[in-house]
TrEMBL record:
Superkingdom of source: Bacteria
Protein known as: Carbon monoxide dehydrogenase small chain
Pathway(s) per entry: Alkaloid degradation; nicotine degradation
Residue stretches making up the 2Fe-2S ferredoxin-type domain: 14-90
Keywords recorded for this protein, A-Z: 2Fe-2S, Iron, Iron-sulfur, Metal-binding, Oxidoreductase
InterPro entries (alphabetical): 2Fe-2S-bd, 2Fe-2S-bd_dom_sf, 2Fe-2S_ferredoxin-like_sf, 2Fe-2S_ferredoxin-type, Beta-grasp_dom_sf, Diverse_Oxidoreductases
EC number: 1.2.5.3
Gene3D superfamilies: 3.10.20.30, [2Fe-2S]-binding domain (1.10.150.120)
Gene Ontology MF terms in the entry: 2 iron, 2 sulfur cluster binding; carbon-monoxide oxygenase activity; metal ion binding
Length: 167
């Protein structure tokens, strides 16, 4: 965090360079800018939802260097030189990721607010463990709260995605 400037009002701002969904971004941010706000407000990547802002609900989950994190608990300055994947970066162009496809196929969403965080957590799991058990899926999504679905369809969708990726 040594690349800083002091603006006219005396506030210290930092130069952050980060790869997000395969594209390089360099922006000046305040020291206290949260990653979720940086993504949504500075880069207009609004698929990452803003919920509790305490790290409890998981709707702001993104992958940081391939690992799921709550972006409401990470400062934008802490992603300098790192790689972030948001829900916008999961698909391959117009082709949905298999996890996204299976969420649709298994009706693993209702209101949809938790969905992007659930999909990110699920994709991160399958990247690490292509053959998870039901227990491992439930453990991987434990940090993502859903008030609508009861999780059954979500778990089924992730297991179906794992099976589909084996083929």
């Amino acid at each position: 965090m040594s690349n800083f400037i002091v603006d006219k009002s005396g506030i210290k701002r930092y130069l952050v360079s980060v790869k997000i969904n395969g594209s390089e971004y360099t922006r000046v941010v305040k020291a206290n800018t949260l990653l979720v706000n940086f993504l949504r407000e500075d880069l207009d990547l609004i698929g990452t939802k803003k919920g509790c802002e305490l790290g409890d609900c998981g709707c702001c989950t993104v992958m940081l260097d391939g690992k799921p994190v709550n972006s409401c608990l990470v400062l934008a300055v802490d992603v300098d030189g790192r790689e972030v994947t948001t829900i916008e970066g999961i698909a391959n162009g117009e082709e949905l990721d298999i996890v996204q496809e299976k969420f649709i196929e298994h009706a693993a969403y209702q209101c949809g607010y938790c969905t992007s965080g659930m999909i990110i957590s699920s994709r991160a799991l399958l990247n690490e463990n292509p053959s998870p058990t039901e227990h491992e899926v439930r453990e991987a999504i434990a940090g993502n709260l859903c008030r609508c679905t009861g999780y059954v369809n979500i778990v089924e969708a992730v297991l179906a995605a794992a099976e589909a990726e084996k083929k």
